[in-house]
Design a protein that fits this description.
Helix 6 links the parallel strand 4 and strand 5. The protein has one domain: 3-Layer(aba) Sandwich (Glycerol-3-phosphate (1)-acyltransferase), CATH 3.40.1130. The protein contains nine helices and eight strands. By secondary structure, the protein is of the alpha/beta class. The protein has an eight-stranded mixed beta sheet with strand order 1-2-8-7-3-6-4-5, with helices on both faces.
Length: 275
């Protein structure tokens, strides 16, 4: 299993090279029972992290290590990972990272991609804080929790807590979609991230991702099918300044995501035209 020293070396590689693609020697041939192997090892990674968190010892280095172990787990089952745009994380000060939301895989892998450059807090559902195992981890790292039951209160929480974190030099990552889905819905992609950036006076960094290596399940959404033929991709865009109402910035974020999703042949929901 990946060690802390290995994780630090991987982070240094991200900083040095500015991009990442799984080396051939890390990607293994897809063998049978991949789904069982994947979720068994994934839970082992989370359980180890939870034990450390319960002791009050879950540092940023441990956070990145767990994430890098998930990256290596994907590769060990035949998955290829491609990341571009690390330079945009390095060049910007604290920023709001705005991304599409395809599966729970990105919540496991993104910390290890962002932490080599800056601490990060995710906007999450409050219910995640009470999840067995995973909740212990999330209570040990920075986050902004929202209920999704009261949009006005959620907006207040994100603006107030998110601004404080950004003022402390922490990136805030947000998924404006209502739920995880392979299909991207531009019409349902809210501007909360842009509003936060405008309040805090920081730029936004758009992120287009493709994480359908781990599909969403039908009965249990967090435990879907595994398809190692699907390349996992994270493409960070250049920082975008938010001016006036933020409408232009929102449009640029959506355009960045759409351009890559079309290239990757990801389904996109048509925008309904009101008459």
């Amino acid at each position: 299993m990946l060690t802390l020293k290995d994780s630090q070396a991987l982070a240094e590689r991200f900083r040095r090279e500015g991009e990442y693609r799984s080396p051939p020697d890390t990607v293994r041939r897809w063998r049978g029972l991949a789904r069982i192997r994947y979720y068994t090892r994934l839970m082992a990674i989370y359980m180890a992290s939870a034990r450390i968190a319960r002791r009050g010892e879950y540092t940023l280095e441990q956070y990145a290590l767990a994430s890098h172990r998930i990256l290596r787990l994907v590769e060990s089952l035949g998955g290829v990972i491609e990341v571009k745009g690390f330079a945009h994380l390095a060049s910007a000060g604290p920023a709001v990272i705005i991304s599409n939301h395809m599966s729970s895989l990105e919540t496991g892998m993104l910390p290890g991609l962002i932490l080599p450059f800056r601490d990060v807090a995710f906007v999450i559902k409050t219910s995640l804080l009470t999840y067995p195992i995973f909740g212990q981890i999330m209570r040990s790292v920075k986050s902004v929790a929202v209920t999704r039951d009261n949009p006005r209160e959620d907006l207040r929480q994100v603006l107030e807590q998110g601004t404080r974190l950004l003022e402390q030099g922490v990136n805030v990552a947000i998924f404006p979609q209502a739920t995880r889905s392979v299909e991207f819905d531009p019409g349902g992609f809210n501007s909360l991230g842009v509003k936060l950036a405008a309040r805090a006076g920081v730029p936004v960094i758009p992120l287009a991702l493709k994480t359908n290596f781990q599909e969403n399940g039908t009965r249990m959404k967090d435990f879907g099918r595994i398809d190692p033929r699907e390349v996992t991709r994270f493409y960070f865009g250049a920082p975008i300044a938010v001016e006036k109402t933020g409408r232009a910035a929102q449009e640029q974020v959506v355009a960045h995501i759409l351009s890559y999703l079309r290239e990757w042949r990801i389904p996109i929901k048509p925008v309904e035209v009101k008459t």
